[in-house]
């Protein structure tokens, strides 16, 4: 039995946070990071339909979108060895690992050549939270760090991320392509009883 109250409480707390501090990214990171960390450290609430891996590609399930589209919450489910393209977000985002683990590789654009340059990489384990935005670093590639198990992370973004115009990047040429992610699911979890 899933403890959907945990997700409902998180939605309510995050809504209060955004009501209180608006789009002050740094303040959202400071307060929101601990809320997300607490959520992903209690793996008893995500319904199975939003935790299913797909053989072909990672899944991006919308769990909640703020009615004013000030933020959205999604579960990302990575099959063994799956990864994203190199991509940006254009808005603030937080990534918290709930099952398995993820390899996060950061990139930047070299203004003189237009090429994509690797900046660093790190492993994110259960309870780890990563931050992205145009201010703190916005281009990365995320992979399941396991080849033999599913990994799941919970993401929050400062917009309805599924409809945001974003970009993917080609590592060899620096070529930048428009990208709108959409969502993998047609319906949302019912947290309201
Ligand atoms: Fe990302």
Automatic annotation (TrEMBL):
Presence of keyword Iron: yes
Highest taxon in the source lineage: Bacteria
InterPro entries, alphabetized: CDO_1 (IPR010300), RmlC-like_jellyroll (IPR014710), RmlC_Cupin_sf (IPR011051)
Oxidoreductase among keywords: yes
A GO term for molecular function: ferrous iron binding
Record keywords: Dioxygenase, Iron, Metal-binding, Oxidoreductase
Binding, Fe cation: 87, 89, 140
Family: Belongs to the cysteine dioxygenase family.
Protein name from the UniProt record: Predicted metal-dependent enzyme of the double-stranded beta helix superfamily
UniProt source species: Neptunomonas antarctica
Lineage, broadest ranks: Bacteria, Pseudomonadati, Pseudomonadota, Gammaproteobacteria, Oceanospirillales
């Amino acid at each position: 039995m899933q403890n959907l109250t945990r997700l409902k409480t998180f939605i309510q707390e995050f809504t209060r946070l955004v009501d209180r501090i608006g789009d002050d990214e740094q303040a959202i990171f400071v307060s929101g990071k601990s809320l997300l960390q607490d959520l992903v450290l209690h793996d008893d609430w995500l319904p199975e339909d939003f935790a299913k891996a797909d053989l072909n590609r990672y899944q991006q399930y919308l769990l909640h979108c703020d009615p004013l589209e000030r933020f959205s919450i999604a579960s990302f489910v990575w099959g063994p060895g799956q990864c994203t393209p190199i991509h940006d977000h254009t808005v603030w985002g937080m990534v918290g690992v709930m099952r398995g683990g993820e390899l996060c590789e950061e990139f930047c654009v070299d203004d003189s050549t237009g090429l994509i340059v690797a900046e660093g990489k790190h492993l994110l384990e259960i309870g780890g939270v990563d931050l992205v935005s145009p201010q703190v670093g916005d281009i990365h590639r995320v992979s399941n760090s396991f080849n033999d198990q599913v990994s799941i992370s919970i993401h929050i973004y400062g917009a309805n991320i599924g409809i945001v115009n974003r970009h993917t990047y080609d590592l060899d040429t620096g070529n930048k392509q428009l990208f709108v992610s959409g969502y993998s699911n047609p319906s949302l979890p019912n947290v309201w009883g």
